[in-house]
Write a structure and sequence with these properties.
mainly alpha, 0% strand
């Protein structure tokens, strides 16, 4: 494993967490932002992700899956972070639950921060809705949560992050779709 991958991955985690923290403050969940993705520093997640580091331009998880057929980092991560849809269901479950409000808001902050970090200067307000359009049909999530995400990303494409990611607006949209 190369030292530049280790340092690069560590820096990418820190950038991502910083972006999530800033967005979480705006969303009214600063503690969630502070605690966000701490499991990425665990040996299970860190070392595999450093091995498959993608230059900070995309997640190392797909690269691990392409190489091995699975990612131990992802299996570890999704089981410890309630802001991921995958945390909330089991293979035998019939209905996938709606994420509690604070985790739904953290999910939005997480997705936005990932886009901001991976795309850098190339990020646009359309990025999230375009990405969502590609993955929504294969995302294992409650339909209410899918509608919530779609509306948030659509609003961001029209009005920008600063106008959409506010405590008041995210609470309003959560209540509209998830209550």
């Amino acid at each position: 494993m190369k030292l530049k991958n280790i340092i690069g991955h560590f820096n990418t985690i820190n950038k991502h967490r910083w972006e999530v923290f800033k967005l979480s403050i705006r969303a009214g969940i600063p503690l969630r932002g502070l605690l966000h993705d701490l499991s990425k520093y665990s040996p299970t997640e860190f070392w595999e992700s450093a091995k498959y580091y993608q230059g900070g331009k995309r997640s190392p998880i797909p690269a691990a899956r392409d190489d091995k057929g699975y990612s131990i980092a992802w299996l570890h991560h999704k089981g410890r972070n309630k802001h991921h849809f995958e945390y909330w269901y089991d293979a035998k479950q019939i209905e996938i639950p709606v994420l509690p409000r604070k985790y739904a808001k953290e999910l939005i902050c997480d997705m936005l921060a990932a886009g901001l970090v991976y795309k850098g200067k190339d990020w646009t307000t359309d990025f999230e809705i375009n990405y969502w359009n590609k993955v929504e049909s294969t995302t294992m999530a409650n339909d209410k949560m899918k509608k919530f995400c779609r509306e948030v990303y659509t609003e961001i494409s029209k009005d920008g992050i600063n106008n959409v990611v506010t405590k008041k607006n995210l609470d309003k949209l959560y209540d509209k779709y998830c209550r």
